[in-house]
Amino acid sequence: MLGPSLESHGGMASCASTLLNGGLDRRCNVRYLATTEEGCKARKLACGLSTLFVFSREAKDCDLVHIHFSYGVSMTRKALFVRRAKNMGKKVILHSHSSAMERAILEGDSGSKNEIKKFLSLADALIVLSSKWKDLICDELDIKRSIVHVIPNGVPLGDPSAKPDHDERSCCNILFLGRLEEEKGVGTLIEATGALVRNGAVIELVLAGSGSDEETQRYQLLARREGVNCSFVGWVDSEKKRDLLVEADVFALPSKREVLPISLLEAMGAGVASVASDCGSVPEVIHHGRNGMLCEPGDPESLRTCLALLVQDPVLRKRLAIQGFETVKKGYSVENSVDALLGLYKEVLHG
Fold first, then answer.
1. Model pTM?
2. Of 39, 142, 236, 288, which sees the most CB atoms within 10 A?
3. 34 is in which domain, residue-wise?
């Protein structure tokens, strides 16, 4: 299995780590190789070249190659490994994680689309995270539907019964997990929270994720200007993430673009009432008002309306948290993902 370093920040590394820790490594003999790691461009390049050398030596003994990828540089980098694997006669499974690819497919020129199609066509099987993505890729790029398989992100389940009752505390804790950038709607979240604070709500906003120094400073200034009590805790490991989810009353992810965000599934799987943007495959998970709330991407007023309902109504929060947990338990557990992945491995090898 190839992908970013398991210590990297982001959903792709989180997905790979969750699969491995969720039982995949106990049910098949899998070796994970990192094709990139956090750091400067030179460090990323050195990691990729070093891994390509190791891969060329060790792939001789493997049955198939499972490659996690996103759009842009990641796709270009992974093409080297795909071609090397195919030249060695190995079966290749590509695992798509990129929301940026949607824009390239729908808005890009014919050259961009042909580049994506050429890369995806190298695979013996292609994993996408939702049925919407399968339809997009098959319809727009004319990829054979038989090779495209929907395996949603899976997450470990928390224990909602162990979550403390926060109904009596005066301050509502709103948590964000993700990169600190406009694509994830961080500015929108701060503005929406500021509007609630000006209307008398008592809120602690916790932003957990990495971002450039410039972006972080900009959001810190925006939070002060909006009068928001905002904690910037940086990137967090799985243990710290669990602690933050236990303390959270509401999870918010107002992204402008998404595929199927793993942080949203983690929050719902931990029993936290969640608000997310109506984009990508999020509406396949959240049904507005039933197991979570949907807001319009990039719209602070839409987000403010959703957050206001949850901040003011602990009963609603609890109901959505319970239903959100049940949604993840039924369809997005890591056990389901591992079972589906092992089934695909067998199909590719013996089908």
1. 0.89
2. 236
3. 2-154+333-350
